[in-house]
Amino acid sequence: MSFLLKFVQKLILACLLWGVFAAPSWAQDMTQAYKVSGIQSFETADNLEQAKKQAMEKARLTAATSLLKRLTADQHHAEIAAMSENLPLGKWLHAIQVKNEKTSPTSYRAELQFDFKPEAVQAFLRKKGWSYADRPKPITLILPLYDRGDAVLLYEPENLWRQSWIRQESLSGLVPVKAATADILPLGMTAAKDVLNNTGLIAAALPQGYSTDRVLLLRAKVSVLSQNNGGSQLRIDVSFVPPAEGGVQTTPSPISYMAPVGEDLAAAFDGAARQVMRLLEKNWKDQLFSGGGFTASLEVLLPLRDLGGWADAQRRLSSIPEVRQIRLRAMTKNMAQLAIDLSDRPENLIAQFQSHGFKLTPNAPLWLMEAY
Predict the structure, then answer these.
(1) What is the pLDDT of residues 132-141, one digit of tens each?
(2) How far apart are CA 222 and CA 236, in angstroms?
(3) pLDDT tops 60 at residue 317
(4) Are 120 and 108 in contact, with CB atoms under 8 Å apart?
(5) Helical packing angle, 265-290 and 160-168, nearest 10°
(6) 26-46 CB burial, b ≥16 within 10 A, e <16
(7) What is the CATH code for 294-371?
(8) Taking a C-beta distance cutoff of 8 angstroms, is the pair 259, 233 a contact?
(9) pLDDT tens sequence across 36-87
(10) For residues 342 and 332, is the Cβ–Cβ distance under 8 A?
(11) Which residues pair with 249 in a beta bridge?
């Protein structure tokens, strides 16, 4: 038995060294926030190769800027826009996915998704001294109601508002969303009027995995505005249906989206959905920052007696209120390198770590954290 125990211990250690267990599930979820999808790129040039190069460069810059704005508070967004051309994009990019690619001898068009390296982006934000939020919110269920004037639509095929939210499912980052399907709601609630008349019943009938604070009823109305040049412009007004008692998430005020002149209804609904998503992400970031958003990241070396020492240290670190996330960078038999996201500056938390059995010693670039 002693031989078998030693073999299992060596196997676990080897897996840790190769990274098999190096990314716990709560850390893996974070990577969703570093994916930027739906970037539409179109460029023309003297030849296809040059057009593609220009399209990729501009799309990558757009994606990186969008990512930084997604993760940070509004107060940094003007500086992000000003520095965009000086961002170290080559060090950040992990992968590119290309869809709907169309080419000609002098043009390139595609829809792109950029996957960025969390550690590289986080290092940039820490160097800037900016707080960042990259923990996705649990999935939000969207009930998109289209008030067409003559009827309110929900699951009908002509409900283009719902189609926009289905497209948003693959684009969301910090706030993942899912457009409701008929099987999610209780029997007898397959039409918009049934939902509007029974909002208080929705919460009690939701399947496992959906809670009352993660459901949004979004009612959209369309107005057609005439322009002096004879053209027309669409305005989408979105209201968050007030919940009945016990009920469904709402937000403080409605929003309005002014579509560019000539934009069709489907594109206008997409624009309105993006505006709602920006509001949802801002509210989620504000909640993270006010309730302990990530303000600092501490890189440490932790001496270990054995693998059991790592399990004990992880358990104790997770019990410290100011610790928001723990990432295992590397591990050997007697040492672990960790990145710990904190809700305060490390120097302000030395006593707090000490109360949980850790001695913190400042050092550059890695602090020393000793368990006792």
Answers:
(1) 888 777 788 8
(2) 5
(3) yes
(4) no
(5) 50
(6) ebeebbebbbbbbbebebeee
(7) 3.30.70
(8) yes
(9) 998 999 999 999 999 999 999 999 999 999 999 999 888 899 999 998 778 8
(10) no
(11) 216
Q: Using CB atoms within 10 A of its CB, is residue 7 exposed (0-12), middle (13-18) or buried (19+)? A: exposed
Higher per-residue pLDDT: 290 or 72 = 72
Structure tokens at 196: 């509007």
Find the angle CA(264)-CA(242)-CA(164) to the nearest 5 degrees.
25
Joined tokens for residue 244: 């009945």
Adjacent-strand bridge partners of 234: 224
Torsion of CA 53, 59, 65, 66, to 10 degrees: -160
Q: Which residue has the tokens 């500086």?
A: 79
* CATH no., domain 29-128: 3.30.1660
So what's the pLDDT on residue 202? 59
Read off the pLDDT of each residue in 151-159 and give the average, rounded to a whole number.
89
Domain layout of the chain by residue ranges: 29-128, 140-290, 294-371
| Cα 224–chain centre separation | 33
Q: Give the residue, 212 or 122, on which the prediction is more confident.
A: 122
CB 288 within 8 A of CB 341: no
Q: 168 near 176, Cβ under 8 Å?
A: no
- Rounded to the nearest 10°, the torsion over CA 36, 37, 40, 43 is 50
Q: What is the pLDDT of residue 197?
A: 65
CATH domain 140-290 topology: Rossmann fold (3.40.50)
Contacts of 45 (CB under 8 A, 6+ apart): 51, 54, 106, 107
pTM of the model: 0.66
Distance separating alpha carbons of residues 178 and 185, to the nearest angstrom = 13
Residue 125 CA to residue 83 CA, distance in Å, equals 13
Torsion of CA 53, 55, 57, 62, to 10 degrees: -170
pLDDT single digits (tens) 318-357 = 878 778 788 888 888 889 999 898 877 788 888 889 888 8
State both tokens at 210: 């959906």
Residue type, 301: L
Candidates 111, 49, 61; CA nearest to 90 is 61
CA distance 302 to 316: 13
